Structures are given as C-alpha cells and as structure tokens.
Amino acid sequence: MLGRLRVFHSCGFVIFFVVVQHAHGDLSYSVQEELKPGSVIGNSADKGARYRINAAHDADIGKNSVQSYTLQQNPHFVFSIQTTSAGSKYGELVLDKELDREEQREMKLLLTAVDGGSPQRSGTVVIHVIVLDANDNAPVFSETVYKTSLPENSPVQTPVITVSATDADEGVNGEVTYEFSRLPDKSRRLFSLDAKTGEISVTGDIDYEEGSKYEIFVEAKDGYGLSSEAKVIIDITDVNDNAPVIYLKSLTNPIPENVSPGTEVGIINVQDRDSETNKQVRYFCVFLPIFAEIGQTESKSLVK
User: Residue ranges of the Cadherin domain (predicted)?
Assistant: First the structure.
C-alpha cells in the first residue's frame, strides 16, 4: 500500500508529500540569536508565540503508521514531540545551545518521520533556520590609542585625525556614532568631532605655549547604546611665532669715568616663548662703545 505523510505548518499553509521511498518539504524559521537554551523556536512575524509543527500523518494504521522522528544531528537544536490534552500530537523545535549570528547566520536541518512497516518508509522535511540579529556586540575601535601631531596656529576646520569603530551587528544594532567623553572644557573649545565620520577638527586657536599636548577620549555607540572608548593623543608642534623679549634689571646704571675695561655695568635678560631652536637667541649691541657676550638667555654688558 502506498503510504502518505503530511506535515502541517502552524502558520496556515500545508506541506504535502507523497512517500514512495521518501518525501521532501521545507519549513522556514527565524530565530533570535540570544534565545536561551530550552526556548521554543518562533517565527519573527509571531514573536513570543509557541511555534510548533503538527505531527506527520500516515494513511496506514497500526505499526505501519508513523512511529518515530529523527532530527539531523546538529549543535543547536533538538526536536520534541508533545501531546495535547485531546490526544493529538505535534512537534517542537527546541534550542539546545545558544546561537551566534556572527558565527552562523542560517542553517538547514533535516527532519525525518519513519513508519513501522516493511519495507519501512519515511518522509523528510528541510527546516531552514535564519538567525536574527541581537544587539550583543559593542563597537570596536581600530586602535585603542590614536596618536597624531598638529602644528600650532592651525586654521579652524583643519582635520586632525579620524577615529574609526566597527560593530559586528546588523541594521540599527550596528550603526556607530561618535562623541567626546571625559573632555576638559579647554579641549572642547579647541576641537570638534563629527558624530558620523569620527573626524576630529580644529575649532579654536591652537597655541603651543598654552598647551603642548592634549588627551581626548572618544566614545563610539551603536544604535541601542552599547559603547566603547578610545584615547586620542594630540601633540602640538611649535612654530617660531614669538619674538624675543628683553628684560633689563636696571634701566639706568651710572658708570664712573675711567672705569677699567671688562667692568660689568649691567645685565640683560632675553626670553623667547618658543621651543628648541626657535628659542635660541643672539645678542648684539649696536652703536654703543661696549660689547656684549653672546649667550642663550642672559648677557653681561661690559666696558669696552
């Protein structure tokens, strides 16, 4: 006798397949990736509902009817047969191990129903499981610490550096935006951050003499608030934008006549706010009958 197996889909459509040696069909499921072990799998269009598969049917009776079900071995799911209070049976696809969409986005499982006749006949259905994304990944920066240099007096809107973070999730869960965190008011006046691109730009007057290094913390957030943080170190490089300033300890200093050559008559102090070679100075006394010793920051005026 020709056996018939039928599998009913709980969403309203029916998959029929005729058994000669075996039969085939398809079922499709969408599953949240963070669903806990033991959860009953549901369809994304019917979240929270128990999703079940009605038992396969065989036109034969007794031992020739359906006797057992076998789900293809896999690391995540088991198949369980349940009996209603009215005595009818249905199957449940149950999560046995947590899913991770970033490791496997979908899978196909083979469910087989076997009767007890001789020869034994079976029916199979392919269960297509699509893993839905959950917001289980925080953004990850390409660097934990970004370093760059910036000349002082750089114009407003000068790009300084661009930070970048990626999120393994999809859609809104994977959309990354940027903002400053733990930023002193002084730094906030000097720099701005593009929330979408991660580009840091100049917005104020950059003066090496006011600050030679800035540490800025940038936070990357995804669409539902998971975040991570990176540090940005900006070293300001000096330019020669300060003239030397002369400081005299005394503007007037009487000198006796006939004073001996080499006698100290005054001290001149010169300072330059620039750094390194930009602050090195040389002294010259012009149109005076004295000479000055060349020095770095101080010179003595001597009688010639």
Answer: 23-141, 142-246
